[in-house]
Write a structure and sequence with these properties.
single chain; 4 helices; 29% helix; 4-stranded antiparallel sheet; 5-stranded antiparallel sheet
């Protein structure tokens, strides 16, 4: 039986989603060949797990629920626009957050728990971000990168009060995300 395509994430509140969507609208005017994410999919991925068996998912969920108790709700500041691997050769466009030790600690905790359950340790440096879109072809990408340089993203802050265990269903039209479990942070 195939598993459930899963990831662990921090949600993005609707007011921040709306501001990010407004930036997307400006970027879309460049007509660059980018697959733009819908605002209901904006989140910060802490750990991507891939396909997970139901039995492991239950154990993982229990471990996350126990470990999350040491964390309190906190403020996230969304503050910048960027691209991976860089703005000169973009593959992914994103909104970044101000350096935040709690986000780093949550990601490290989730990563440790996942390794305990046999998932590979992530080798890449963690860079918390919300994906706006992925480049499909290079058409008009230069126009897009030039447009990014002209956009001012006013930093905005919001409270993060939960950690999410998410399901990702791959569809021909794109992935559909569903919350499998929400783990509240201490208030």
């Amino acid at each position: 039986m195939p598993g459930i395509r899963t990831f662990i994430a921090l949600p993005t509140p609707s007011i921040a989603q709306q501001a990010m969507t407004e930036i997307q609208m400006k970027l879309k005017e460049t007509k660059a060949d980018v697959k733009w994410e819908s605002q209901n999919k904006f989140h910060i991925t802490l750990v991507f797990l891939g396909n997970v068996e139901h039995s492991i998912l239950e154990l993982l969920s229990t471990a996350l629920a126990k470990s999350i108790q040491q964390f309190s709700s906190f403020t996230i500041v969304y503050e910048s626009i960027g691209a991976f691997p860089n703005i000169q050769n973009p593959r992914v466009f994103w909104i970044g957050i101000k350096s935040n030790q709690t986000v780093l600690d949550l990601q490290a905790m989730a990563g440790r728990i996942c390794v305990e359950f046999g998932f590979p340790k992530e080798d890449r440096l963690f860079h918390p971000h919300i994906t706006l879109g992925r480049v499909k072809e290079t058409r008009n990408v230069v126009r897009l990168t030039e447009a990014i340089k002209t956009i001012t993203f006013e930093p905005m802050q919001s409270r993060c009060s939960e950690l999410l265990l998410m399901k990702s269903d791959l569809q021909p039209s794109g992935s559909i995300y569903t919350i499998l479990k929400s783990f509240p942070l201490q208030t």
